[in-house]
What does this fold into?
Amino acid sequence: MSDTPKFEVIDRRKIKAEEEKEQAPEKKPEREAAPSEPPAGPRLVTSEPQAPAPERAAEPEEEPLGELPPAPSAEESRQQKTAYDASAQRIEDLVRAQNPGMGAPPPVGFEHLVQQLYLSAMIQMGAGTQEGQRARVDIMGARQTIDLLGVLAEKSKGNLTEAEDRMLQTVLFDVRMAFLELTNMISMQGVQAPPPPPTKKR
It folds into this structure.
C-alpha cells in the first residue's frame, strides 16, 4: 500500500462555466480544446521518476579574435624566414653603404624587447620631455604597455635565464612604481580646489 495520499483535483472553472451557461443561454459556448491540446486546469503531478533530459554538448568557446587562418606549414615558415633574412641583409648593406663608419648592429635579443616596452611605457608617462615643455602623458597607453610587460613575464615564466628574469622583474617593478606615482599625482590634482582668480589692482 502506497503512503502517498490520494486526492482528487476539481476544476472549479468548469463548474462556473456551466452555471454561466445556464444563466445566459444566448451566449456562445466556449471553444472546446482540440484533442491535441492538453486539458485546461490543474493537473495531478505524479511522483514517477522522469527520464533526465539529454545533456547538451558543451559548445566550444568562441575565439576572441574570430576564426583564425590555418597556421603556415614548417616549410612555408622556413622559406619565409630565409626570404626575410635576405631582405633584411640587403637593407642593412644599403644603410652601411651610405654610412661607412657604422658597425654591424647587434643581434636582437630578449633584452631588446624588454627595453623597448620599458622605454615606451616611460615615454607614455611623460619621461624624456625637454625642459620648459609640458609633458604629454598617455596614462591609458602606459597602462597597456605595462600590462604587456606583465603578460610577457607570465608567459615566459620558466623559460628565461636568471639574468633575463631578473631584468624583466626589475623593469616591471620600476614602471609599475612610476605608474603609481603618476596616478597619485593625477588624483591629488583632481581633488584640489582650483586656485582663486587673480585680484585686480586698483
User: Anything to note?
Assistant: Residues 110-126+137-189 form one domain. The mean pLDDT is 77. The CA atoms of residues 76 and 82 lie 10 Å apart. The two ends are 109 Å apart (CA to CA).
